[in-house]
């Protein structure tokens, strides 16, 4: 059952790729196609961060362990879409013209924080296998708490690139903050049980 | 340095479109000479600049009165009432005047002006506006000796403009120019686009175009022009004084605090086309650089 649901979730997670491919094929990307592709993958990265963070609260609220089975896959999709987002910026937008890219990363805070978030994703993706979980034991959990920082960086990345107070970045920020607050409560409860 | 004069544009598309347009108007073939002259001008030019397609100019807009998405203006402005409409010119003037849009359109010869519009967000379009130099209109009001700046106020009508129901910016939208900038012949009062009426989403019925400044300096749906003694505070300056200065001249060497201004994406150029370097004063340096001689453009951003 779980195996089939995993396959279904995996296929659903490819949805952002399907939409953008159709958009490209039918030439529906509008006035700024490069920006549209970049924003598309950026936004889906945030959505997958939210989904990943939603699994353990869902497990608690529904009393179903099955939610956390998807967590690793969703987390890897965060890394996958964040990487495409970054590659769109570096390759499609700036044509691997490194000088302005380095300038942006070092001087522009929204790019700096976005790039930092991507760097922080690397160790998490690299240690996502069962082998690494067994190897790192207690440290694995500690290491993977970095995802909370990544989530905050992702929200800030979106807020800081917006020209004024926009609705969407605020919504993502609120969702992320709520998901993080839910965790604090989970921990204190566990603590009480112990 | 890249510089666009309207004689320098590759006008293949507009030429054909204009021919089509003239045909629709039922004019004689001699009128086609206008198009022909544009074509000759383009051949002399080494630049391969193409007019941005009408569908992009009329659907990809920053006009926060109708919402912050690029598609909001076209989607939410179609029932916006642009008639009756009048513009008042007051402040430090010898005589305050109020003109209707029709009076304005009939008072000045409307000409086509093709300018590059460079948005502060890092994209640009080449747009064939219809309009006339703002100076002609301002002269009508005869400013007095106290007049040093000009303040433009856009319409305030939250009933019709859903974006104005939220404090995205301080409404009504305000912009300003120094009087010599306002009197510069390139500063254009726009009444039309692509040989047609100005669409609502582009700032109908009356908008400004200051081609050497970032797009937000060019106020839309203007109802008041006020001559003032002190530098006006624009809506964007009020929203974030560190990011939006009064001058806001296009300048690749002066970054927006949060992003680079060194290059821009050309709207409608497709998924595989490269960014182009941004030109100082958006390519109009030859005409306007003298307005800022001796000024520190980094400080006066």
List the helices and strands and how they pair.
The complex is a heterodimer of chains A (194) and B (301).
Chain A (H helix, E strand, L loop, with lengths): L1 H12 L1 H11 L7 H30 L8 H23 L4 H10 L1 H18 L3 H7 L1 H7 L1 H16 L5 H27 L1
Helix pairs in contact in A: 3-4, 3-9, 3-10, 4-6, 5-6, 6-9, 7-8, 9-10
Chain B lengths: L11 H14 L6 H13 L9 H4 L14 H5 L9 E6 L5 E4 H7 L3 E8 L4 E11 H7 L8 E6 L19 E5 H4 L5 E6 L2 E2 L9 E3 L12 E7 L6 H5 L23 E4 L9 E2 L7 H4 L13
Parallel strand pairs in B: 1-10, 4-11
Antiparallel strand pairs in B: 1-2, 3-4, 4-7, 5-6, 5-10, 7-8, 7-9, 11-12
The CATH architecture of the largest domain in chain B is Alpha-Beta Complex
| Helicity level of chain A | over 70%
Q: Could you tell me how far the N terminus lies from the C terminus of chain B, measured between alpha carbons in angstroms?
A: 20 Å
- Poorly predicted spans of chain B: 22-47
Whole-number total of structural domains of chain B? 2
Number of helices of chain B: 9
Number of domain modules of chain A = 1
Oligomer: heterodimer
The tally of helices of chain A reads 10
- What proportion of the residues of chain B form beta strands (DSSP E)? 15-25%
Broad shape of chain B:
globular
SSE pattern of chain B? HHHHEEHEEHEEHEEEEHEEH
